[in-house]
Amino acid sequence: MHPFAYEAPTTIDAAVALLDKHGDRARPIAGGTDVLVQARANRWDLDAIVDVKNIPELTEISHYPDGSVAIGAAVPCYQIYEDQKIRDNFPGIIDAVEMIGGIQIQSRAALGGNLCNSSPSADGICPLIAYNAVCHIAGPGGDDNHRDVAVEDFCTGPGSNVLARGEILVSVVLPNPGDNFGAAYERFIPRNEMDIAVAGAGVSVKLNAAGDKFEAARVALAAVAPVPLVVPAAEAALVGNSVSDDVIEAAAKAAGDAASPIADMRGTIDQRKHLSAVLTRRMINQAVARARG
N or C: fewer beta carbons within 10 Å in the chain? Predict the structure, then answer.
């Protein structure tokens, strides 16, 4: 790892200017649990690391009157799961941030960093998709060059995403899920902690007032495709139908069929497709239970 400059801007504009100046030879750092490891492995030839933890917009959790919440890109996991309003209103997000590494990692790692690392097996991305979260991105040019991108469209491949030169993720905004809504995330790993998912499933459902019919649904899978995988066929199997074992099983089967994993040291293709169906079934049931209160 050759020497590089350490920069610690205090504004979004200053951070964007540094990232734009250095281009591919600079990386932002929030917790550093991914960036520093990859820098030491010489994945990049860096001229600068841009520390964003001194930028207020990136380090705050903001709750709005309409029930939505903005989580700054550099907010560490522990601050998210210690926020009671997020625990009460977005339990599917809590599922994820409580399993990203061990407690030491959670004191540093950020949900925004997990998203920007853009690993197919990332635990934070599928729950964000389930909650219809949106990325707020800033780029060169001030307020005129801010844009919003749905989380499901953010990742473009393993380790790659839509961020262009000079752009930075500012926050992730979760809309108010409303009544009769539930979401959940789970992964399968070979051991109990600090491991990478063999497969994961993030699910959300919105039920009718009686709680016996699916009005909306999101299903997203981790570690079984080049990017976190949204499964429209599984969502379609639920929406408009009654809450029943047969309907849930049809959605789970659709998730397993949609998975297109690779085989590696963590699991075979058949195992991962099977796990995609099993985890989807479990998370639909968990989401239904949460939607019913």
Answer: C
